Amino acid sequence: MAADLSQIVKAYDVRGVVPDQWDEPLAELFGAAFAQVTGADAIVIGHDMRPSSPGLSRAFARGATRRGVDVTEIGLCSTDQLYYASGALGLPGAMFTASHNPAQYNGIKMCRAGAAPVGQDTGLAEIRALVEEWQDSGAPEPADTPGTITRRDTLEDYAAYLRSLVDLTSISRLKAVVDAGNGMGGHTVPTVFAGLPVDLVPMYFELDGTFPNHEANPLDPKNIVDLQQRVREEHADLGIAFDGDADRCFVVDENGDPVSPSAITALVAARELARYGGKGTVIHNLITSRSVPEVVRENGGTPVRTRVGHSFIKAEMARSGAIFGGEHSAHYYFKDFWNADTGMLAALHVLAALGSQDGPLSRLVAAYDRYAGSGEINSTVDDQGARLAAIKAAYQGRDGVDIDELDGLTVSSADWWFNVRPSNTEPLLRLNAEAGDEATMEKIRDEALEIIRG
């Protein structure tokens, strides 16, 4: 029976349970479709440590070579390592990963040459249409001359490129605990950190796609408990956690306290603006802290606010020529990394900033963490539209209150704001609130939740 592609082709990638929702024969069709839609003569493919990844990756390669396309396989890699290969080699790329999803899941993140994103509006819809057609009518005719498959190791080149973008040679020696969550950080961190003035304390570096220690999603507080404890035990300068495909990084300070990704965004933005002579555009999504645009302006830059989601960030990075972009989900995007996201480069910036001054990380990030935030709070609702309308009605017309609908509903005043966004895949509304102090934030948060939850 043909697979239901509406269940696995998402806004930005392919993702589902293997083999229930998709399998190697389907991966082969995706490879053929990717080859046709990109029109490329050659592509690059990488994969994570999940048990199903090597087979799915090789099936995708078979589909592409049947269409006459040459394939470079880089094997085990992080998602940002695949983006590096796409950028450095000038080839469209496909990464087999389901990021932080449980072991039975897998997926494909695809990009055009130079790590340009492939999403619903930039090729993914056409890829899906071809796969659906071929599921019904049979595989496409093979090319007269099949493509070749070659292996290439890009890890050392990827590590060297990242180190060329951040100067760590003269920093004070640091002790860093790194939790790879049994994901691809365990593969990339030892090579990237090699030779740096960093005493590395590794946690869960063994590659294991069954995630035996904890889910590889550092944004969930329960998944950084081990890291927090180890930082305190080791009297380390900081802790860093990566997600499953190691494209996101999360930081804890010397006390084991989480550092807001908005504070990391502001810190890296200040450093990148300094590197670019105090000029440049910095992208931030609308649920990052107000501290981000403030810091950008203070450092001579121009902040640009976007919707949530990496396709919007990358599109705006390309349109505006931005030097850096950050999201509160701990995705960090760099002009010098083909506008793609790399948590590893953000981590190197944090190490460089910390090692270039005398104080602890908690004091360093305090300058960038100026407000009280609620974090993201999800509420299950019967009617997303009706709840959003109720919020709009409750605040519209209030003195000093502005409302905008760039992404969901953002309600703001001089000393607080909150945003409510509907989930695209579940009957949820997502609330983020921020204010100048904890008491005001809690008041605004609870007021919004009362309307959301009826």
TrEMBL record:
Gene3D superfamilies: Alpha-D-Glucose-1,6-Bisphosphate, subunit A, domain 3, Alpha-D-phosphohexomutase, C-terminal domain. Belongs to the phosphohexose mutase family. Residues 376-450 form the Alpha-D-phosphohexomutase C-terminal domain. Transmembrane segments: none annotated. GO terms for biological process: carbohydrate metabolic process. InterPro entries: A-D-PHexomutase_a/b/a-I, A-D-PHexomutase_a/b/a-I/II/III, A-D-PHexomutase_a/b/a-II, A-D-PHexomutase_a/b/a-III, A-D-PHexomutase_C, A-D-PHexomutase_C_sf, Alpha-D-phosphohexomutase_SF. Pfam families: PGM_PMM_I (PF02878), PGM_PMM_II (PF02879), PGM_PMM_III (PF02880), PGM_PMM_IV (PF00408). The keyword Nuclease does not apply. PANTHER family: PHOSPHOMANNOMUTASE. GO terms for molecular function: intramolecular phosphotransferase activity; metal ion binding. Its cofactor is Mg(2+). Keywords: Isomerase, Magnesium, Metal-binding, Phosphoprotein. NCBIfam families: PRK09542.1. It comes from Streptomyces nodosus. This is Phosphomannomutase. Residues 7-134, 157-256, 264-371 form the Alpha-D-phosphohexomutase alpha/beta/alpha domain.
